[in-house]
Design goal:
The protein is mainly α and about 70 residues long. It is about 50% helix and about 10% strand. The chain has two helices and two strands; from the N terminus they run βααβ. A two-stranded antiparallel ribbon has the order 1-2. Helix 1 runs antiparallel to helix 2. The longest helix is centred in the middle third of the chain and has 19 residues. It starts with a strand and ends in a 9-residue tail after the last strand.
């Protein structure tokens, strides 16, 4: 879950998520690592494919996760 304030530059968010992506490779549990990396990549793709350069006036919330781990 990530809350992006209004008018925040989305390029900075992409940089932050990319940094988190490199950190996620250090997660020891294979299934957790795979889920975290997948979620981060989904967020990066969503931001890069958006039509905005900045977050909308009301802000933006990104939610990503793995539903397979829910029981």
């Amino acid at each position: 879950t990530m809350h992006i304030p209004s008018n925040y530059h989305l390029g900075l968010i992409t940089e932050t998520l990319t940094s988190e992506l490199s950190t996620a490779s250090n997660i020891k549990d294979k299934s957790v690592r795979k889920s975290v990396i997948s979620s981060l990549k989904s967020c990066i793709v969503a931001i890069k494919s958006s039509i905005w350069h900045n977050a909308p006036e009301n802000g933006l919330v990104l939610l990503a996760g793995d539903t397979k781990s829910c029981s």
